[in-house]
Automatic annotation (TrEMBL):
Lineage, highest ranks first: Eukaryota, Sar, Alveolata, Dinophyceae, Suessiales
GO biological process entries: mRNA splicing, via spliceosome
InterPro entries from the UniProt entry: SF3b5/RDS3-10
Protein's recorded name: Splicing factor subunit
GO (cellular component) term, any one: precatalytic spliceosome
Amino acid sequence: MACFFWSGLIPGCFAAVLWGVRRVSRVDLGLQVGEAMATPVPGQTVDLGVYDRFHVHAQMEHLQTKYHGTGGADTSKWEWATNIHRDTMASHVGHYTRLAYFALCENEPVARVRFNCLQAMIQPCGKPPLKDDMED
């Protein structure tokens, strides 16, 4: 069996991530089971169509409304970093075994480590930067 890396073939899910193409099945292309499927060349653009572009934007808007901290075009660096830090701390608090590991490393009780993580979520990146009058 040939390795995908050395043969130049990349599985569909990785091709979609690397080159921005959508995955198409062999049935959609009219290929038989034994036929080879051509892979796009890096840098090649593939037209997704108006519906697909609208669908991607609709999915992104849905995620932004459903999950706080997803971010958008107007998200500042401070907001993004704050969301990342809060998500990390919330993950630490939510996993008892990780809290127990941190407590062991810090030689503190688990409750103290949990409290410290919750306190760190208040302003993890410091105070928000001042906004200029030109931005409003």
